[in-house]
C-alpha cells in the first residue's frame, strides 16, 4: 500500500519532545487534519534546515507522510507574518497550546478553530495588557463552543429559564450557567451573558468576540479557568502555574 502523503498543510507546532539524540516528536495543530504527531528526523543536528523553523506560535506549511499514529515530517516552510512573542505574550501562547493538547483528540479536524487560533496568535504576538487578556478570554469561549463544552449563554442551563438582564449569573463546571449565589467568586450580569451569546451566534469574526469580551474579561477569567481545568482534569494547567511562580519570585 502506498504511503499517504500530505503537502503544504497549514500548521502550528504545539509541543516538542526528544525522540533520539538527533530527532524530535512534534505535536502539531493542522487545519485539515487536526492535532497530529510527527517525527522530525535529524532536526536537532546543527546542519538541519528544519531547526530554526519548527518553533511554536509560528505559521508553517508542512508536508508529512505515513499511515501510523506518528507520521514522518517531510518538509517545513515558515509562512512569516510576525516575530516570536516574548514575555507574558509567549507564556500566553504556551497556555493556548496546552489547552489544545489537553482538549483536542488526535486527527479530529477543526478548521474553524484553526483559523481562530491563527487570529489570536497574531494578536498576542503584537499586543499586551488588556487586549491580550480579552484575546485569551475570546479564544477560551470559542474553543469550548467548538468542542461542545460551552452551554447556551442566554438561558439558565438546568431550568432553561431566560436570563434577567440585571441579575447575576455564574458559569460552573457541572451546572452550566446558573443564578449566582453568595459563594460564587465571579459573576456576570444577564445582559453581558446574552451579549456574548449573540456575538458567538453571529458571523463569528474573532475581533467581534474579542470586543465583546473586553468589558467582561476580569469576571470571565476565573469562571472560564475553572471550567477549562475541570474538562482538562487538572487543578491548574502547567503554564498557569509557571506564570504564578514567576510573579511570586
Overview of this structure, please?
It is a single chain. This protein has 249 residues and is α+β, with helices and mostly antiparallel strands. It folds into two domains: 5-78, Nucleic acid-binding proteins (OB fold (Dihydrolipoamide Acetyltransferase, E2P), Beta Barrel); 87-248, Recombination protein O, C-terminal domain (de novo design (two linked rop proteins), Up-down Bundle), CATH 1.20.1440. It has helices at residues 87-103, 111-126, 129-146, 190-200, 206-214, 217-232, 238-248, and strands at residues 5-18, 24-30, 34-40, 60-65, 70-78, 168-172, 176-179, 188-189. The strands form two sheets. Strands 1-2-3-5-4 form a five-stranded mixed β-barrel. It has a three-stranded antiparallel β-sheet with strand order 7-6-8. Strand 6 and strand 7 (176-179) form a beta hairpin. Helix 1 runs antiparallel to helix 2 (111-126), helix 2 runs antiparallel to helix 3 (129-146) and helix 3 crosses helix 6. The radius of gyration is 20 Å and the shape is elongated. The N and C termini lie far apart (56 Å). The model has no long low-confidence stretch (mean pLDDT 90).
The CATH homologous superfamily name of the largest domain equals: Recombination protein O, C-terminal domain
Alpha carbon gyration radius = 20 Å
- What distance lies between the first and last C-alpha atoms, to the nearest angstrom? 56 Å
The number of helical elements comes to 7
Strand content: 15-25%
CATH architecture grouping of the largest domain: Up-down Bundle
The residue ranges in which pLDDT falls below 50 over 5 or more consecutive positions are none
Query: What would you call the quaternary organization?
Result: single chain
Query: Structural class, from helix and strand content?
Result: alpha+beta
Q: In order across it, which strands form the biggest sheet? A: 1-2-3-5-4
Amino acid at each position: 500500500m502506498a504511503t499517504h502523503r500530505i503537502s503544504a498543510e497549514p500548521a502550528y507546532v504545539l509541543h516538542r519532545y526528544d525522540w533520539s539524540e538527533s530527532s524530535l516528536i512534534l505535536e502539531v495543530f493542522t487545519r485539515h487534519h487536526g492535532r497530529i504527531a510527527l517525527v522530525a528526523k535529524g532536526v536537532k543536528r546543527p546542519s538541519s534546515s528544519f531547526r530554526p523553523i519548527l518553533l511554536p506560535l509560528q505559521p508553517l506549511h508542512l508536508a508529512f507522510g505515513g499511515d501510523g499514529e506518528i507520521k514522518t515530517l517531510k518538509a517545513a516552510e515558515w509562512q512569516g507574518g510576525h516575530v516570536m512573542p516574548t514575555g507574558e505574550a509567549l507564556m500566553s501562547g504556551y497556555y493556548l497550546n496546552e489547552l489544545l493538547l489537553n482538549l483536542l483528540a488526535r486527527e479530529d479536524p477543526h478548521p474553524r478553530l484553526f483559523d481562530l487560533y491563527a487570529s489570536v496568535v497574531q494578536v498576542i504576538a503584537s499586543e499586551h495588557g488588556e487586549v491580550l487578556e480579552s484575546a485569551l478570554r475570546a479564544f477560551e469561549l470559542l474553543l469550548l463552543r467548538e468542542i461542545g463544552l460551552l452551554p447556551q449563554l442566554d438561558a439558565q442551563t438546568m431550568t432553561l429559564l431566560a436570563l434577567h438582564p440585571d441579575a447575576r449569573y455564574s458559569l460552573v463546571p457541572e451546572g452550566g450557567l446558573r443564578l449566582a449565589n453568595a459563594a460564587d467568586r465571579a459573576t456576570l450580569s444577564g445582559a453581558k451573558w446574552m451579549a456574548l451569546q449573540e456575538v458567538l451566534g453571529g458571523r463569528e469574526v474573532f475581533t467581534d468576540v474579542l470586543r465583546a469580551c473586553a468589558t467582561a474579561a476580569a469576571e470571565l477569567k476565573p469562571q472560564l479557568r475553572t471550567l477549562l481545568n475541570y474538562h482538562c482534569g487538572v487543578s491548574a494547567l502547567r503554564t498557569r502555574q509557571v506564570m504564578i511562580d514567576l510573579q511570586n519570585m
